[in-house]
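Final report, Chapter 2: Outcomes

The project's central promise was a pipeline that accepts a single protein chain and returns its three-dimensional structure in a standardized token representation, suitable for archiving and comparison. That pipeline is now operational. To close this chapter, we reproduce one record exactly as it appears in the project archive, with the input sequence first and the structure output second.
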Amino acid sequence: MKPGLFDSSILASTQQAVEFVSNILESSTEYSVIGKDLDGKILLWNEGARRMYGYDAEEVVGKLNSEILHIPEDVAAGKPRAVMEAALRDGKWEGVLGRIRKDARRISAVFHLYLPAAQGARQETTPQPSSSQLQGHGERVLYVDDEEPLVFLMTRMLTKVGYKVTGCTQPKAALESFRSAPNDFDVVVSDLSMPQMSGIDLAREVLQIRPGMPILIASGYIHPADNEKVRSLGLPDLLLKPDTIEALAQHLYNIFAKSQASASGEQPAGNSKVRGQAASSS
């Protein structure tokens, strides 16, 4: 514990420090705070976690693995491990995750995982566009998902990074919005599995209205057969959801950079010149 973060009187004893931090955690009823070890074993569970997930601390602390809070599709796809590895590499992971309560009800939550970055964990990778280059420049996104909390969160997050977002929880309503003004959108981002109409069916209808429209389809579980279907429409492979806003911003960046490069005869590149041209053309 860093002494500079607390008054010295609080650190007079370990017990006092523990009680002080415990009181803060217990008073944070609007936020779920969960501590776990690297294997996922739950070590800390505050009142906010109890309210969100329905488990009492006595049921989970030291007894259950945090994978019980992840939706089964994410567990099968290795999402919890991938998130942990990213946090170990970068020191943190932030994004939207599908979660499951004790009563089996599914929810979406903004998730923040913080860990000390492992020494020497960073490896040389292909240079990626900087965060400033991944900023939107007013491009218009039609975001479609039947989970209202996820639509609300992603609309806010994409807006913060510079996009103009229209969020829809009903694919048929989204299709009608697109049909009435197909040139009012620059990209469609849709969930795969939705009532009324799947993301693939929505994409097919959108492409009939406006051929070549950029479309991204996301799914909590990616099946090879579904990827074949989206490829048959000339679309990129399915995205694994829920994912970080940075990952989605990267995909959007790639779409607009590729689109502009194709129009100008240039090669897509991780530079602001191409990105700026894409923005000015919208």
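Archive annotation: The CA atoms of residues 89 and 123 lie 9 Å apart.
This record, like all others produced under the grant, will remain available to the consortium after the project formally closes.
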